[in-house]
């Protein structure tokens, strides 16, 4: 697969390829800057998981609150809080709360800001239009990388992330849609911390 991708890239005119990569990185820079400039934001968040045969295996929805390195993801079956140092994940089906450091891979892959910045290293990047949105595609340079492809869809007019597709090696894909974006919100610091007392029967598992 890596050899095929390399040969395909070699067939592209070099100036076009360079312009494509530069355009993708510039758009990502603007999208990241937009979220940070909007300060605390809130958006509707829908999350769908498909297996490697394309069958829907899990779906959830809720809202996300995001303020730079802090976020809260409040869906029906899963709730996640991160205050920039610690992340808490509550899983309704097993009634458990998992605690990790905010810089763990499990924690960071839930933050749109982190995702928009992380995959520039170790991935080739390209840009094209799809469904009226700019699609930035990341392809892993390592054939054994768990996330082998990532697609970010950005509205070029608003410079805001609209959805993202995460493809995992022989594990299917995750599709996330972000809607009803609200900027300049004001959330209390406690909004980014798990209200443990609200889940009195939950088992707390500290993985730090």
How does this model look, in words?
With 208 residues, the protein is an alpha+beta fold. It has one domain: Clam (outer membrane lipoprotein receptor (LolB), chain A). The protein has helices at residues 2-11, 14-37, 105-108, 112-118, and strands at residues 40-50, 56-67, 70-75, 78-82, 86-91, 96-101, 123-130, 133-140, 147-155, 160-168, 172-185, 203-206. It has a 12-stranded mixed sheet, covered by helices on one side.
Give the SSE layout.
Layout: H1 2-11, H2 14-37, E1 40-50, E2 56-67, E3 70-75, E4 78-82, E5 86-91, E6 96-101, H3 105-108, H4 112-118, E7 123-130, E8 133-140, E9 147-155, E10 160-168, E11 172-185, E12 203-206
Parallel strand pairs: 6-12
Antiparallel strand pairs: 1-2, 1-11, 2-3, 3-4, 4-5, 5-6, 7-8, 8-9, 9-10, 10-11
In brief:
By secondary structure, the chain is of the alpha+beta class. Helix content is 22%, strand content 47%. The chain has one domain: Lipoprotein localisation LolA/LolB/LppX (outer membrane lipoprotein receptor (LolB), chain A, Clam).
Oligomer: single chain
State the strand order across the main sheet. Answer: 7-8-9-10-11-1-2-3-4-5-6-12
Percent strand equals: over 45%
CATH class: Mainly Beta
The profile of the biggest β sheet is: 12 strands, mixed
Please tell me the CATH architecture by its name: Clam
**Structural domain tally:** 1
CATH topology: outer membrane lipoprotein receptor (LolB), chain A
| Helix percent band | 10-25%
